[in-house]
Design goal:
binds magnesium ion; 21 helices; globular
Length: about 500
């Protein structure tokens, strides 16, 4: 048995190496590659992807898996080996159920859909994208048909990003959350708005960059095992538990966003850096789901980085760096400015109090499209109605409405809810952390973040992908994903800021 297990692990290690090679190529593509390399890089990625797929779906791995599953029956179900087999089985079935002709067709349809989306968005004309999105929906429905019937067809799509999570569970969570967020937003809208003009002026990019690395260092980011670079859209990737890359960007209309972007990606990075070294080159390496990953990034960005104790420590330093911009601004006004709430049209610019509403809207539309109850041609109209209902704002055109996100053009449905679930999980963890470390705020005021990182490492990071997301959240917080803590957090924070 040990011999077969070793054999399986050595094959999976090679698959992991190939995935890492693809990740290096992808990282370079988004950071340093000159424009001219685009076509060649597409070929590199396609070839490496094909070899990785062939290697992973080989009969050899299939037979080893089946043999080992038989031998492992009745063994300790929570052991690393049992969990490795379970996860490998899931990924193996997923990779072998989908015919290669479908994968090829999907690549062609989505590359055309992406081009159409770029044009449609620039012209703000949904009709250009509509036939492509119809094909994308049809392909997703076909993808679902390769899998055994689920409680809801959308479960199959969701499962790609959140193992084991059901559509009905997400709907229940969001149904409880939506009215409370809408109510909070209405209460805030009735109060005088915060002045945040100090954010929308010129800041020196290099100074912000250096300061972002000071913060990441204080958070515990290990520069011997990671680095930060620039990219158009910030992201985190890794080639090993010991080589984690984060990126950030400079936005001229809101320069300080660079700091929050770095804190966000540092949160993702710390998760990857904290995974059990024994999982290196196995499927257990890597965060367990997108929502749990996002809980880590949001926790460092928002619950830490947008908190008063954090800025009680860092604000004097920021004032020293930018005397013209914030030298005469008191800490209270700065804190309010970075926490300003305003209904806006664009999801990626949304604040903590409005963000989830953007997600709920998208989830409803995706479920409707997959069920066939919402026609693609009706999306712009339904989009605008729901924006008004949830956020009280209506896009002037489709570019700032239904066409704003890249996801559907890439064929991806089932992804959006993970962002909001990440917010909810971050607040659940936060309540538990504050119960376990009562003087957390005091530590932040002194610039100490080690106790928080140690807690996250021990409870969350170390486990990598061993546990399913709901299982992990339950183990750590005592309950499954729940909107209660997030709503409590929002209500407390904004009652104070807006005097509700
Ligand atoms: Mg993120």
């Amino acid at each position: 048995m040990a011999e077969k297990m070793d054999k399986l692990k050595s094959l999976l290690a090679e698959v992991s190496d190939l995935n890492a090679v693809g990740a290096v190529l992808g990282w370079d593509q988004q950071t340093y590659m000159p424009k001219g390399g685009a076509e060649a890089r597409g070929n590199h990625l396609a070839t490496v992807g094909k070899i990785t797929h062939q290697k992973f779906t080989s009969d050899e791995i299939g037979i080893l898996l089946t043999d080992l599953e038989k031998e492992h029956m009745g063994a300790e179900p929570d052991s690393d080996d049992a969990r490795l087999l379970k996860l490998t089985r899931l990924e193996y079935d997923r990779a072998t159920r989908v015919p290669s002709e479908f994968v090829a067709e999907f690549a062609i349809v989505t590359s055309k859909a992406f081009e159409a989306w770029v044009e449609a968005r620039s012209k703000s004309d949904f009709s250009i994208f509509q036939p492509h999105l119809e094909k994308v929906v049809e392909l997703n429905q076909r993808y679902i048909s390769f899998f055994p019937p689920a409680d809801h067809p959308y479960d199959v799509l969701l499962d790609q990003f959140e193992r084991g999570l059901k559509t009905a569970e997400v709907q229940e969570i969001f149904d409880a959350l939506r009215p409370q967020q809408v109510e909070l937003l209405k209460a805030i809208a009735g109060k005088p708005q915060i002045n945040d003009t100090f954010l929308h002026i010129d800041y020196d990019q290099q100074k912000l960059w250096d300061f972002s690395e000071v913060i990441a260092t204080k958070f515990g980011f290990d520069w011997e095992r990671g680095r930060q670079d620039k990219s158009a859209h910030p992201f985190t990737t890794n080639f090993s538990i010991n080589d984690v890359r984060i990126t950030t960007r400079f936005e001229s209309e809101n320069p300080i966003v660079l700091l929050f972007s770095t804190m966000h990606e540092t949160g993702h990075g710390l998760y990857e850096l904290g995974i059990n070294q024994a999982y290196e080159r196995t499927p257990l390496a890597g965060g367990t789901s997108l929502a749990v990953h996002e809980s880590q990034s949001r926790l460092w960005e928002n619950l830490v980085g947008r908190s008063m104790p954090f800025w009680e420590h860092f604000y004097p330093e920021l004032q020293k760096l930018f005397p013209v911009q914030v030298g005469n601004l008191d800490l209270g006004s700065f804190y309010k400015g970075i926490n300003k709430v305003q209904s806006s049209l664009i999801r990626v610019n949304a604040d903590e109090a409005t963000y989830n509403l953007h997600i709920m809207l998208r989830l409803e539309l995706e479920i409707g499209m997959i069920e066939g109850t919402i026609k693609v041609k009706d999306l712009p109209e339904i989009w605008n109605i729901k924006m008004d209902e949830y956020l009280g704002v209506v896009p002037p055109d489709d570019a700032e409405g239904v066409l704003q996100d890249i996801h559907w053009s890439g064929g991806t449905l089932g992804y959006f809810s993970t962002y909001a679930l990440g917010n909810l999980i971050s607040a659940q963890l936060w309540e538990k952390i504050n119960a376990d470390i009562p003087d957390l705020s005091e530590k932040f005021r002194k610039g100490e973040f080690g106790a928080l990182l140690d807690w996250l490492r021990e409870k969350v990071h170390i486990h990598g992908s061993k546990y399913e997301p709901q299982e992990l959240v339950q183990r750590v917080t005592g309950s499954k994903i729940d909107s209660g803590p997030y709503i409590r957090y929002l209500n407390q924070k904004y009652s104070e800021i807006y005097g509700l």
